[in-house]
Amino acid sequence: MAGPRKRDKDPIGGNPGRAGFKTLVVSTDFTPGAAWAAGRAALLPFVPGGKVLLLHVLPDGIPADLHGRADRDARRSLDEVVLPAFRTAMAAGGCGAAAIPVVRVGMPYVEIIRESRARAADLIVLGRHGRRGIRDLFLGSTAERVIRMGGTPVLIVNGKPSHPYRRVLIALDLGDTSPATVELALRAAGPGAAETFILHACAMPFQGFIASGLTSAELDAYRRDSRAASLSRLRGFLESLGDRGVRWKATVRSGDPRVEILREAGRRRADLIVLGTHGRTGVSHTLLGSVAEWIVRRAARDVLVARAAPVSFDSP
């Protein structure tokens, strides 16, 4: 029986230099999850003049004589349900961004994407739908379509926020989108984050095939060599980033990345998990049946999905 796993860690330092967000789009349907999303947006770092668009989408098909009333009701609900959550969070440590209520008509995912593109938004923020949770939310839902098609990073808020992010776990596959994933994570964390963890989790290549022909000692040596090679790649990647104003705590884990990411988030008491996507295919390929899908649907913590490949459309 194999002994307990050992962690490979290597802190790598950097110098200050992080930029906050300029424009965020927060989708709201007046559920508690929407209030969480607004509160979390208020706690994110912003550049001077930053703004948060609190977007509610009215459905198509409202009779013309009722449209004005529906618009007024939506704006009243934004004022009474969502703005208080935003202002409360802002008073508790927000960075001074302005909140702008916006009402649109159409299919929610289309209007969220259009608004984010029209405003050149840095981030879309979505809240969990109450007790149903992320697992139900992401099956054929608005959130899934926004992540798949939007081309803008998406933050899923999984609970009521009480403070800015302090302990961030960045899960990397060391692919071509990894540098952008790190940059996005540092923007979301801001200068107040106490800990920034980097995880590279991977199954050892050809383990099942090779294991049948090796002794126990040879298999152990193969595992050590594989882990050492992965750690070397991770260290090289972090060094290539240059100064980022943080001291990385880098870890390599062998095993199913879906399981290892959630375990590491628990070990590190992370309040945010940041995931990248494969640049060549985008989230449309990697979200379903992938590491990203698993984490987004099952994590109890907030999850930030880095930029996906955009999809063009004129109408739903």
Brief account:
This protein is α/β, with parallel strands linked by helices and 316 residues long. The protein has helices at residues 32-43, 64-91, 108-118, 133-137, 142-149, 178-189, 207-211, 216-240, 257-268, 283-286, 291-298, and strands at 8-12, 21-27, 46-58, 98-105, 123-127, 154-157, 167-171, 195-202, 248-254, 272-275, 302-305.
Explain what this protein looks like in three dimensions.
With 316 residues, the chain is an alpha/beta fold. Helix content is 41%, strand content 22%. It has helices at residues 32-43, 64-91, 108-118, 133-137, 142-149, 178-189, 207-211, 216-240, 257-268, 283-286, 291-298; strands spanning 8-12, 21-27, 46-58, 98-105, 123-127, 154-157, 167-171, 195-202, 248-254, 272-275, 302-305. Helix 1 (32-43) links the parallel strand 2 (21-27) and strand 3. Helix 1 (32-43) crosses helix 2. The longest helix has 28 residues, at 64-91. The termini are far apart.
Helix-strand blueprint:
Blueprint: E1 8-12, E2 21-27, H1 32-43, E3 46-58, H2 64-91, E4 98-105, H3 108-118, E5 123-127, H4 133-137, H5 142-149, E6 154-157, E7 167-171, H6 178-189, E8 195-202, H7 207-211, H8 216-240, E9 248-254, H9 257-268, E10 272-275, H10 283-286, H11 291-298, E11 302-305
Parallel strand pairs: 2-3, 2-5, 3-4, 5-6, 7-8, 7-10, 8-9, 10-11
Antiparallel strand pairs: 1-9, 6-11
